[in-house]
TrEMBL record, chain A:
Domain (Nucleoside transporter/FeoB GTPase Gate): residue spans on this chain: 42-152
Protein name in the entry: Nucleoside recognition protein
One Pfam family per UniProt: Gate
From TrEMBL, chain B:
A family per Pfam: Gate
Recorded superkingdom: Bacteria
Protein name: Spore maturation protein
Family annotation (PANTHER family): INNER MEMBRANE PROTEIN YJIG
GO cellular component terms, semicolon-separated: plasma membrane
Ranges where the Nucleoside transporter/FeoB GTPase Gate domain occurs: 46-147
Organism expressing this protein natively: Ruminiclostridium herbifermentans
Length: 200, 176
């Protein structure tokens, strides 16, 4: 999909540039943007390292585990069809907590492990279960404690207080997560009935 | 909102202190771990650099040609309805589809308007408060071979729409 978007942006851009008589500006923009992408990356480097470094310390000093244990009761509400001591629950908790701490490298393998465990509970291997849907929705709405790349970007561009948007980000992602949970819970009740009704 | 802004001020130092306290309690080698983690930061940046070059060029060309103005003109009724700054609107479309493309777009907006403007802040909050839906679904469902994803996409997009609205609302509430 991103391939089509990228080609589309460039082709439409160049054609629109020709029709609008701005082709010289378009060419200049292409060169300047390539240059600024590299400048941005180097601007991000320091702050990004600061947070990935700190989060590594958090992971190894047991904070990630501790939070994982604390949120366990919530998991039982969100995933009622997973048996209580099933390894799927643990993997889901660890994935969500890793996302929370922005540990992208750790979050993805844990998420795939969780999916494998959920698949082992699944009767129809080609169709997602309610727990899988809930897990994926929680992942796409992910709450992040420190959005390191956003803070790094704002630092690089000279924001007065680079982290002052952090509470807004928390508010917006908590709203999204709540909406996602409500939507998934409601849709899980009506989805298959709707399909059956259509078949009749 | 002074109160919320001061939470933002204290959030990072508090997280610093909690993590360092945990490291002291657990007697882990904090500095060695920090250096180790920071290396991952460098790898991440190096990994995103090529895609950022490609995408910033595409966004730059699209904007400079005037095509962006046409897109915004078409989307105008919806943008006005939400009270969104028009130049930020394409980000709402891009965010669920591609993480690196939307990061490039946020970079453009912050460069154009400045990080401490309403536009710059809304873009940063929109970027920080959601994940790339299509990528996440492809990776996780692809890993176990699920073909029928049922209502996952609908629920994820509903959450995404709420996060766009909440981003606007939260920025207006906190920064006025």
């Amino acid at each position: 999909m991103i391939n089509y978007i990228w080609i589309g942006l460039l082709i439409i851009g160049f054609i629109a540039g020709i029709f609008n008589g701005r082709i010289d500006q378009v060419t200049k923009a292409a060169m300047d943007s390539a240059q600024s992408a590299v400048v941005v990356c180097f601007g991000l480097l320091g702050v990004m390292c600061l947070w990935t470094g700190l989060m590594k310390v958090a992971e190894k000093s047991g904070l990630v585990n501790l939070i994982g244990r604390l949120v366990r009761p919530i998991m039982v509400f969100l995933f009622p069809d997973i048996p209580k001591n099933h390894p799927a629950l643990g993997a889901i908790v660890m994935n969500l907590v890793a996302n929370f701490f922005g540990l992208g490298n750790a979050a993805t393998p844990l998420g795939i492990k969780a999916m494998n465990e959920l698949q082992s509970l699944n009767k129809d291997k080609k169709t997602a279960t309610d727990s899988m849907c809930m897990f994926l929705v929680l992942n796409t709405a992910a709450i992040q404690l420190i959005p390191a790349n956003i803070i790094a970007l704002r630092t690089a561009e000279g924001a007065k207080k680079p982290a002052d948007i952090i509470v807004c980000i928390w508010i917006a992602s908590i709203c999204a997560t709540i909406m996602g949970i409500i939507a998934a819970k409601l849709l899980s009740k009506v989805w298959d009935e709707k399909k059956k009704a259509r078949m009749w | 909102m002074e109160f919320i802004r001061s939470i933002s001020d204290f959030a990072l130092p508090a997280i610093f202190l909690i993590i360092l306290a945990a490291a002291v309690l657990k007697k882990v080698k904090a500095y060695d771990l920090f250096v180790d983690g920071a290396k991952e930061g460098i790898e991440t940046i190096i990994r995103i650099m090529p895609s950022l070059v490609g995408l910033l060029v595409a966004v730059g060309v699209f904007k400079a040609s005037g095509a962006m103005d046409i897109l915004i003109y078409i989307l105008r009724p919806l943008i006005d309805l939400l009270g969104m700054p028009p130049q930020v609107a394409p980000l709402a479309l891009l965010r669920p589809i591609s993480g690196s493309a939307s990061f490039a777009f946020v970079t453009e907006i912050i460069k154009t308007f400045g990080p401490d403007t309403f536009e710059g802040r809304v873009a940063a909050v929109m970027m920080g408060s959601t994940e790339t839906i299509f990528y996440t679904l492809a990776v996780y469902y692809g890993a176990v071979g699920i073909k029928n994803i049922r209502y996952t996409l609908i629920a994820a997009i509903m959450a995404d729409i709420i996060s766009i609205i909440a981003s606007l609302w939260a920025c207006r509430f906190v920064f006025g």
